[in-house]
Design a protein that fits this description.
The chain is an all-alpha fold. It has one domain: Up-down Bundle (3 helical TM bundles of succinate and fumarate reductases), CATH 1.20.1300. It has nine helices and two strands; from the N terminus they run H-H-H-H-H-H-E-E-H-H-H. It starts with 6 loop residues before the first helix and ends in a 6-residue tail after the last helix. The structure holds protoporphyrin IX containing FE (HEM).
Length: 222
């Protein structure tokens, strides 16, 4: 049996791709936090990223690949697990693994929808979805205006809040699962991993959600 056919192999693939996507999410939050330092800070950060030229596209393709692999194996593992779970054991399994673990496929698919929406909003910049002010000097959209104007709409903020809650739910189990796949788990470490994962997901949730919330309450403004 090959590595990707074995369930251990596929769990390792899920863990490795998951932790790489998680790293992106952490770096992205740090980058986005520059919005709190004003227009010049976030625009300079975006210009710096775009100045990397072809590297940006290599990075995007790598991310797309990781995302696709993570989704493909995630769906496959879910289908296999549900086929292998006898109905009478469902309640036991739920009690043992918890809500976040049981809803990984749902939180993952909601996240996928959120990422598609987010890319159309801020990366593709679909006309009508936001305010896109082109800067002739930098040949780029003014990212500060785009973000601040985007989060002046209550509906957009609500959509982001829902997406971010599902992100936190997904990470709260995913991170713990990653640590277990590394083989570090035993009876003593398991609750510690659970607590670390919850903490990490809460930090991500509050970190990300603070951006639209501070904007809609006028604490970050143009
Ligand atoms: C308040 C929350 C967020 C804000 C303000 C935000 C902001 C942005 C902005 C401004 C861009 C465009 C960057 C540019 O082209 O210059 C972007 C791209 C992106 N964001 Fe977010 N983001 C948020 C949450 C998220 C989350 C939770 C995820 C993942 C689950 C995510 C994934 C991405 C991806 C994959 C890109 C495309 C990167 C690229 O173009 O290379 N973002 N985001």
């Amino acid at each position: 049996m090959s590595f990707i056919q074995s369930s251990v192999g596929r769990k390792i693939i899920m863990a490795v791709t998951g932790v790489m996507l998680f790293s992106f999410i952490c770096v992205h939050l740090l980058g986005n936090s520059s919005v709190f330092f004003g227009a010049d800070a976030i625009n300079a950060y975006a210009e710096h990223l775009h100045s990397l030229g072809p590297l940006v596209w290599i990075f995007r393709l790598a991310m797309l690949f990781l995302f696709a692999v993570h989704i493909f194996f995630g769906i496959q593992l879910t289908l296999e697990n549900s086929a292998a779970t006898p109905e009478k054991n469902v309640q036991i399994k739920r009690l043992r693994t918890g809500f976040a673990a049981q809803t990984m496929i749902i939180s993952g698919l909601v996240l996928l929808a959120f990422v598609v929406y987010h890319l159309l909003h801020f990366t593709v910049q679909v006309p009508g979805m936001g305010v896109y002010e082109f800067n002739e000097a930098t040949h780029m959209t003014n990212v500060f205006t785009m973000v601040v104007m985007g989060f002046k709409q209550v509906f957009t903020v609500l959509l982001y809040a829902v997406g971010l809650i599902f992100l936190a739910l997904h990470v709260s189990h995913g991170f713990q699962s990653f640590l277990q796949t590394l083989g570090l788990n035993n009876d003593r470490s398991l609750p510690v991993f659970g607590a670390i994962s919850k903490l990490v997901s809460v930090v991500l949730l509050f970190g990300y959600i603070s951006i639209p919330v501070l904007i809609i309450f006028g604490l970050v403004k143009i």
